[in-house]
Design brief:
By secondary structure, this protein is of the alpha/beta class.
Length: 245
Amino acid sequence: MQRERISRLAHARHPVASPLGDESVRQLLERGLGDGDGHVLDLGCGGGEWLLRALVAYPKLRAVGVDVSDGALTRARHAARDLGVADRLDLQHADAADFTSTQRFDLILSVGAAHAFGGLLATLAAAREHLAPGGRVLVGDGFWERDPSPEAVEMLGDFTDLATTVDRVVADGWVPVYGHVSTRHELDAYEWDWTGTLASWALDHPDDPDSPYALAAAATHREEWLRVYRESFGFVCLVLRPTTG
């Protein structure tokens, strides 16, 4: 079973593919967009959920989304047409790390996509190249709430604690102007949605050849979450402005 199909099915009830509730997403977009009459870029947009919400909320906004998944971009195009915002959304099939544009953007999004760039600071370096004067970056990434096990580090990555994460961002030339640390409820809701939605699909489609693989993937993910990283993993979103430029 393709990983992309697993992800699409697992996120069906949680289209913002990060541990954030709807109100948290709204507040982060509000802090990042201000009056919302500029241009926004999402590097690693997936199905475009952040951009779709922003375009609906801000009628003067224009957006560009970049992702390597044809399927995700197709779903984003269909959703944009259904919502009546397709004329303000440009979706491009490309590696987010290789994206180039002459347009400069007032807000650059990259939430949960740091792996595409090689880490958080590399993500911010890429975003800086596209940032308009006075613009902001909204970035989301993991951190360790407490000391992780070696298995958790191998599974999720070599994060630092929250204070050190913010220190590194500041030392890299950024000022946090807003932030949100995902709550225990948001973290757990995301994982229950991921595992439960995928498992439910498998149970509802017993004749699909992917059904047993989906059920097994849900069980494996649930076991890893509960036993390996639930007690140590955290997620933070930061709205940042550069100290220069």
